[in-house]
Amino acid sequence: MKYFLITAMPKSGTTWVQRICRAHPQMHCRAEDQFTKFWSNINELVNQYNNLVDLRDQQRDRQGIESLTRNDGVKLFYAMIRITLDKAPGQLDWSGIKDLTLSAKGFLRMLPDSRVVNVIRDPRDIAISAWAHGRRIATEQRTDPERVSDEFLVDTARHWQTQLRLAETVRTESPGRSFDIRYEDLALSFTSAVGELLGFFDVARDPPTIEALRLETDFNRLSGGRTPGQTDASSYFRKGLAGDWRTTLSTPQIALVDEICGADLQAQGYDRK
């Protein structure tokens, strides 16, 4: 069984891609894991182990110890990831995870013959979706306005640029092991976009298989009967619409994003204004 990682900025469409992969008969993909939340715990565990064996050595015959290193901690961290990946049914070809905080470079380096899928979405739509998601999951009454703030929009645009550079580095350093898929292509041309994705994994991509994946992950089904564009602010599947920024952001906000990453928007095939 081979391993893969789905990564992107939050609210880029990774859940959609994860569900597509999970529904394929030759693949499995876990919902979002939280591995990096435990990185500091692993470092602390390594330190505690080193301190304990050193103490025991001092109390006994002082033979000396071979301490665990930071690199050993990295190996422990990825051993935990591998354990979760190996929980997929053994007869499948691929086992993956969706995780937005794992390093794609680290994943490819530590798990030989693995792959990475990078999901790309228009940062203006990301900002709108992420802002709405933040309001939905707030544990206390949210006082933020419904419209995304300029500061949040700027932070999203800059983070999006950083993610693009990281993806470019992975493509350069690990040729053939990463694949970019755009949210907008999934929304507008599901069959061809998913066909290319499945070709990357060299798994079945015949029309009946792709149609079954479309039906399984269709917005109408997941949202409980709504069509893309029909909004339910209380739902994780809020709107399912590509290009919402055109009617949601103000003209100055659109210009603000263009000033930061307009050239990158154009390079990725997005309208700048």
List keywords for this structure.
Rossmann fold, 53% helix, alpha/beta, five-stranded parallel sheet, 12 helices, single chain, 273 residues
Q: Which strands sit side by side, in order, in the main sheet?
A: 2-3-1-4-5
Name the helicity range. 40-55%
- Radius of gyration of CA atoms, rounded to a whole number: 22 Å
Q: What string gives the helices and strands in order? A: EHEHHEHEHHEHHHHHH
**Spatial separation of the terminal alpha carbons:** 45 Å
Largest sheet: 5 strands, parallel
What can you tell me about this protein's structure?
This protein is an alpha/beta fold. The protein has a single domain (2-267), classed as P-loop containing nucleotide triphosphate hydrolases (Rossmann fold), CATH 3.40.50. The protein has 12 helices and 5 strands. It has helices at 14-23, 39-59, 70-85, 104-110, 123-137, 150-173, 183-188, 190-201, 207-216, 219-222, 245-248, 251-267, and strands spanning 2-7, 27-30, 94-98, 115-120, 178-182. Strands 2-3-1-4-5 form a 5-stranded parallel beta sheet, with helices on both faces. The termini are far apart. The model has no long low-confidence stretch (mean pLDDT 93).
